[in-house]
Amino acid sequence: MTVTRPAAPRHAWLDLARFACAMAVVMYHYFTHAIDRNTAGVGVEHIPVLSRISDYGYLGVDFFFVISGFVIFASAMHRTPGGFAASRIVRLWPAFIACMSLTALTAMMLSHAPVTPARWLANISFFPEAFGEAPMDLVYWTLEIEIFFYILIFATIMLGWIERPHRLVLAGLVITGMAAVARISLPIFGTHGAYFVAGMALSLLYRNPNDRLAAGGFALASAAALFDLYHRAGIQQRDDMLHDQWGAVAVVAAGLALFVAMRSADIRGSATTQRLGALTYPLYLLHAQIGYMIFKTWQTPDNRFWMTPLVIAAMIALAYAVNRLVEQRPQALWKALAARWIAQPLDRAGGRAVPAYPAGA
Questions:
Q1: What is the pTM of this model?
Q2: CA 308, CA 325: separation in Å to the nearest integer?
Q3: I want to staple 221 with a disulfide (CB 3.0 to 4.6 A). Which of 119, 189, 197, 277 is the partner?
Q4: What is the C-alpha to C-alpha distance for residues 305 and 7, in angstroms, rounded to an integer?
């Protein structure tokens, strides 16, 4: 028996938020972080105002976790376990393999660093260090957190707990809140778990703006996240990483408030907004290591001012190519393979009706 499940509603502002977060991370890596690595960038001493702003770009990752909690939690309510697992694999794996392979190829050409087949294969798993190999790019650490969150959501669908979303938010709030107060770093999540809980609560608030439990959960999870951020930024500040504690808290607090306000905003989706949102994942995967290698190879004091925007434009173009050629054009093939080899076997094994394959979140 085949059943069709409704898709989660699409919010146009999320596409814009994703792209803005990705660009914030790019700016941070090129204008601030690269200076510490002595490899790139137009740094603090060259454009003080721009570099001071880009110093907060690392917080784009924090917002990514909120958005992930929002989107994944909302979409999980419309999926079977197999459908959820298949949608996540289709969303992550093809683009990741393409971007990781491009990074490896660039390393071999520009850095003359050998990339062994063992390292490439280990990176395909998303957890290369478990096989004794280094990640192809240091930004992949966030994928480990994301995948762990997906596993937890998959478990809630399997156990039927997803049908009681408020209890899940409460459980997440208790765990992350206690960890924040006790200054404990959670396994895998570290100090970022509260962001996912805030996103989960926000998704319930979007479904029902009068949901007081969801509003309270969002407020408390946000408070836990900001408390953790204050201490995390303090550690980074002591390590001479320039991050101002109260500045970081103010940026994230303003962003969280904006996420709530967007509930009533009339932002109409378009092909352009969807395209910007689709660029986010490949852009994040491609920009850091490849950008650093390009800067280290070709940047000079004379060309640094035009080299940085040129590399940014090139990374956006490359991300567009990956999205179109790897994600969009063969999308029907990826979905068909995932439905046959992942979704249907998992759902049949669980004695569930096999749904029509849903669109990815």
A1: 0.90
A2: 26
A3: 197
A4: 45
